[in-house]
C-alpha cells in the first residue's frame, strides 16, 4: 500500500516516503535562499542528515548546519544557535529531527529578529503579541521521529538553565510553513525510541480526548490518532523497516499535536518537571506516568474512556482499556517506575509545585493540587 498525500491542515504537509527530495524546493517556496539546518547532535553522523544536506546543496541553498541540540534544550543552546544564524546571514530555518531539535529550531527562527529576551514570549495570556512579526523567519519542519508532533505546533519548549523549569514559548507564526513527513527518515529509529515517541503520540491524543475543554475537531482527531497508534506502533516497534506502519505513526504524531490544542493534562504536568530536573526522555517519562494518572482521573473520564474502548475494539470498558494499556506498554519494555530513568524521591516537593504550575495541569479532568501531585509522584517514582 502506497501512502502519499498533500495536506494543508493544520499547515501544508507533504506526506510520503522519499519526499525529503523536495526539501530544497520547499525552502524556495517560502522564500528561503540561505537556510540554517538545525538538527539533533545524535543525528549528525547518520545518512539521513547527509541526504538532506545534499538536497539543499544541489538546490543551491548551501549546507550550513547547527547541531548543538540535546534533549530538553535551554536558552544557552538557543543563544549558540542564534549566533550562528545571525553571523551566517541566514533567512530561514530547516528544523530536522526529534522534538527537541524541532522545538529549538522553531524558537531560533522566532527569536532571529526579536530584541526582547525569549522568556518575554512565554505562553501566558497575550505575551505573544509582544513579538515583532517581521522578525520571525520562515520554518520548514522535517520530523525524524513519530511522537512529539512539534512539526505542526505553534510553540516550542525551552528549559530555563537556572531554574530548571520548562517554559512554553508561543507565537502563531512559529507554525512551520511546510512540513515534510517522510517515513523513510524514521526507519533507523531504535525500538526504545520508537516505543517512547509512539506512546508520546498516543498520550497527546488521549489527554486531548479526556480534556474538559470544548473542541470537537480535536476530539475527533484524537480518537483516530489513538486507533492508528494501537494498530501500528507494535509493528513499527518489532519491524522498524515496515514503511506502512511508520507512515501511520507519523500521521498519529501530527494528529496528537493538532489535537492537544484542546489541552493536555496530568501526564504532561508530571512529565515536564522530570524532564527539566532529571533530563529524562519525554516520551518514556509520559508512558510511565500514564497508568497512575488514568487511575486518578477515572471518576471524571470513565464514560469517555468507555466510548474510546469501543472505538478501538477493546472489550471491557474502562477496565478493559486500562488492562490493554498496561499490556501494550509492557510489550514494548516500558519500565513500571521512574526510578528506571534515574529519578529519586529527593525533590518531590519541588516537582509537585512545578507540576501544578505547568500549563498542562489546567487541562486535567480533575483539578491538580500540590498534595495530589505529590501522591502521584510517590506512586510513579
**Major sheet attributes:** 7 strands, mixed
- Helix fraction by DSSP (H/I, runs of at least 4): 40-55%
The first-to-last residue Cα distance is 43 Å
The chain-level mean pLDDT equals 95
Strand order of the largest sheet: 1-2-9-6-5-3-4
Low-confidence stretches: none
Instruction: Please state roughly what percent of the residues sit in beta strands, choosing from under 5%, 5-15%, 15-25%, 25-35%, 35-45% or over 45%.
Output: 5-15%
The total beta strand count reads 9
Number of separate helices: 12
Protein structure class = alpha/beta
| Molecular shape | globular
Give the topology string: H per helix, E per strand. Answer: EEHEHEHEHEEEEHHHHHHHH
Report Rg.
20 Å
What's the topology here?
Blueprint lengths: L4 E3 L4 E4 L7 H7 L6 E4 L7 H12 L6 E2 L8 H13 L5 E5 L1 H13 L27 E5 L11 E5 L6 E5 L7 E4 L9 H20 L5 H23 L4 H17 L6 H13 L3 H31 L4 H15 L16 H10 L12 H11 L1
Parallel strand pairs: 2-9, 3-4, 3-5, 5-6, 6-9
Antiparallel strand pairs: 1-2, 7-8
Amino acid at each position: 500500500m502506497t501512502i502519499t498525500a498533500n495536506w494543508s491542515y493544520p499547515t501544508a504537509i507533504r506526506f510520503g516516503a522519499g519526499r525529503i527530495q523536495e526539501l530544497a524546493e520547499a525552502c524556495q517556496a517560502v522564500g528561503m535562499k540561505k537556510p540554517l539546518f538545525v538538527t539533533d547532535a545524535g543525528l549528525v553522523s547518520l545518512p539521513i542528515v547527509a541526504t538532506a544536506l545534499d538536497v539543499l546543496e544541489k538546490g543551491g541553498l548551501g549546507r550550513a548546519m547547527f547541531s548543538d541540540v540535546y534533549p530538553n534544550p535551554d536558552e544557552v543552546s538557543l543563544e549558540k544557535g542564534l549566533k550562528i544564524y545571525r553571523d551566517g546571514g541566514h533567512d530561514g530555518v530547516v528544523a530536522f529531527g526529534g522534538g527537541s531539535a524541532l522545538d529549538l529550531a522553531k524558537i531560533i527562527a522566532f527569536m532571529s529578529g526579536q530584541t526582547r529576551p525569549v522568556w518575554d514570549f512565554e505562553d501566558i495570556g497575550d505575551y505573544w503579541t509582544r513579538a515583532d512579526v517581521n522578525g520571525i523567519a520562515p520554518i520548514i519542519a522535517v520530523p525524524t521521529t513519530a511522537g512529539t508532533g512539534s512539526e505542526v505546533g505553534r510553540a516550542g519548549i525551552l528549559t530555563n538553565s537556572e531554574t530548571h523549569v520548562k517554559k512554553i514559548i508561543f507565537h502563531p507564526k512559529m507554525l512551520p510553513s511546510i512540513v515534510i513527513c517522510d517515513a523513510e527518515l524514521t526507519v533507523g529509529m531504535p525500538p526504545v525510541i520508537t516505543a517512547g515517541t509512539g506512546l508520546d503520540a498516543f498520550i497527546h491524543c488521549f489527554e486531548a480526548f479526556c480534556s474538559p475543554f470544548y473542541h470537537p475537531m480535536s476530539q475527533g482527531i484524537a480518537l483516530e490518532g489513538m486507533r492508528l497508534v494501537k494498530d501500528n506502533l507494535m509493528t513499527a516497534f518489532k519491524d522498524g523497516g515496515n514503511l506502512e506502519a511508520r507512515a501511520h505513526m507519523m500521521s498519529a504524531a501530527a494528529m496528537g499535536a493538532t489535537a492537544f490544542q484542546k489541552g493536555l493534562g496530568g501526564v504532561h504536568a508530571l512529565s515536564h518537571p522530570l524532564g527539566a530536573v532529571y533530563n529524562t526522555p519525554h516520551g518514556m517519562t509520559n508512558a510511565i506516568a500514564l497508568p497512575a494518572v488514568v487511575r486518578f482521573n477515572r471518576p471524571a473520564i470513565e464514560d469517555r474512556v468507555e466510548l474510546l474502548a469501543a472505538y478501538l475494539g477493546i472489550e471491557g470498558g474502562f477496565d478493559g482499556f486500562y488492562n490493554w494499556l498496561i499490556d501494550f506498554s509492557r510489550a514494548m519494555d516500558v519500565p513500571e517506575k521512574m526510578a528506571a530513568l534515574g529519578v529519586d524521591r529527593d525533590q518531590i516537593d519541588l516537582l509537585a509545585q512545578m507540576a501544578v504550575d505547568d500549563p498542562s495541569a489546567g487541562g486535567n479532568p480533575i483539578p491538580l493540587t500540590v498534595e495530589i501531585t505529590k501522591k502521584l509522584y510517590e506512586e510513579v517514582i
